[in-house]
Amino acid sequence: MNGIVLIDKPPHMTSFGVVARVRRQLSQIVGKKVKVGHTGTLDPFATGLMIIVVGEACKRAGEFSKLDKTYEATIRLGANSTTSDPEGEITEVSTRVPTHDEAKKALQQFVGEISQTPPIYSAIKVNGQRAYKLARNGEKVEIPSRIITIYSLELLDYTYPEVKIRVHVSSGTYIRTLAEDIGAVLATGAYCSELRRTEVGIYSLDKVGDLENIHTSDIRKL
Question: Which residues are catalytic?
Answer without folding.
Answer: 43
